[in-house]
Design goal:
Distance between the termini: 27 Å
Order of helices and strands: HHHHEEEEHHHEEEEEEHHHE
Largest sheet: 6 strands, antiparallel
Number of strands: 11
Oligomer: single chain
Strand order of the largest sheet: 1-2-11-10-7-8
Structural class: alpha+beta
Helix content: 40-55%
Number of helices: 10
Shape: elongated
Length: 365
């Protein structure tokens, strides 16, 4: 569950309760309005609104019953004056009856749309689990946590990616951001992750893993052809944690730099010594990948993220700065760190995130 989902769920639940009671209140209010006002005043707006409000929140039978009760109430308030068959009575009864039928139709349309949405949501969830499976909480002696935050509600997956792979050379990780949106981006995500998992097992160096990803994207661009062959790219950062050495090796291909959080609250931004082009843009530059190596002491946490974190902006246009926000703070586990970041970004943006966010945290116990 995303941060803020529980609060949002409570608001939606409260609104639904109000909407479920509102049709009854409208009918009762219409009756009292007619009893307490002169005959020239009409309660028809109350009686027509009741079935329309019921349509999206009630079942079909509930909507029909609401329309029937509104129809009876409309007739009854006129019959009280002995005007059961005059032109105004007939007109208002026909109006309420027409609205009641329309409400039943709306109910069916809404229910059919909800069914399709539920189906699409289920497919999206299944796709996310297949393409971005949740990594194990402990791999190769390291504590691991990952989190994917979609900018749009009910959009479960986009172009951000992460993966963790245990290998003979250490635990290897990748976090990336595919250019573009939609199913094309999801397809590119699956290609990058598939190539990474294979290369992480087979290649002796992290630089070679990056080159394998480069070739995989180049093959896909050639296969697709057209404009994607020239403009498609993926920013990514790859990390390697060799066993028993207390270091982390990083190859950064045009991606936001990782952060290293020490046990005393110190935060260090792991900037690349040499700038490199994103994956898929190898034709524009020939410089080889070079991994940067830095110490990764016991108790420290490595945070890899996409630009959905560092470029999240509030209403004043101010960016969320994870390095500054995390300085001086400590977290009991990687999962707690990611939950905190997600909650703070939601608050910072007022719930209006404009880009997806992938987070991956690794702690050396």
């Amino acid at each position: 569950m995303r941060p803020g989902d529980a609060e949002e769920g409570r608001r939606i639940s409260s609104l639904r309760v109000v909407l479920q009671v509102l049709p009854v209140l409208l009918i009762v209010g219409g009756v009292f309005y007619d009893l307490l006002t002169p005959h020239a005043f009409t309660a028809i707006p109350f009686f027509t609104a009741a079935p329309l409000v019921a349509a999206p929140v009630y079942s079909l039978s509930g909507t029909v019953v609401t329309g029937g009760v509104a129809l009876i109430a409309t007739y009854a308030v006129h019959a009280r004056y002995g005007l059961a068959a005059d032109a105004d009575t007939v007109t208002e009864v026909v109006t309420v009856a027409t609205v009641a039928v329309l409400a039943a139709v709306i109910n069916r349309v809404v229910r059919r749309g909800e069914g399709r949405l539920a189906s699409a949501r289920g497919i999206a969830e299944a796709t996310q689990r297949a393409v971005l499976p949740e990594p194990a909480g402990r791999i190769g002696g390291f504590d691991i946590a990952a989190r994917y935050e979609a900018a749009q509600a009910d959009a479960f997956i986009g172009g951000d990616l992460y993966a963790v792979q245990d290998s003979p050379y250490g635990v290897r990780l990748v976090v990336g951001d595919v250019r573009g949106k939609g199913m094309g981006a999801v397809a590119a995500v699956s290609i990058v992750i598939g190539a990474f998992r294979e290369a992480a097992e087979q290649e002796a160096t992290l630089e070679a893993v990056a080159q394998r990803l480069e070739r995989a994207l180049a093959r896909e661009a050639t296969r697709r052809g057209g404009i994607e062959a020239f403009e498609g790219f993926t920013t990514a950062v790859l990390a390697e944690l060799p066993y028993g050495r207390g270091v982390v090796r990083i190859v950064n291909r045009g991606h936001p730099p990782p952060l290293l959080l020490h046990v005393d609250g110190t935060v260090r931004c792991l900037l690349a010594r040499e700038a490199a082009l994103p994956l898929g843009m190898g034709d524009l530059g020939t410089s080889p990948d070079r991994a940067d190596e830095t110490g990764f002491p016991a108790g420290a946490t490595l945070l890899l993220h996409t630009d959905g974190l560092s470029e999240a902006r509030n209403a004043r246009g101010e960016f969320y700065d994870p390095e500054a926000r995390l300085a001086g703070r400590t977290f009991r586990a990687p999962g707690e760190l990611l939950r905190t970041l997600a909650e703070e970004v939601r608050r910072h943006t007022g719930g209006g995130m404009t880009d997806d966010m992938a987070l991956l945290a690794v702690r050396r116990p």
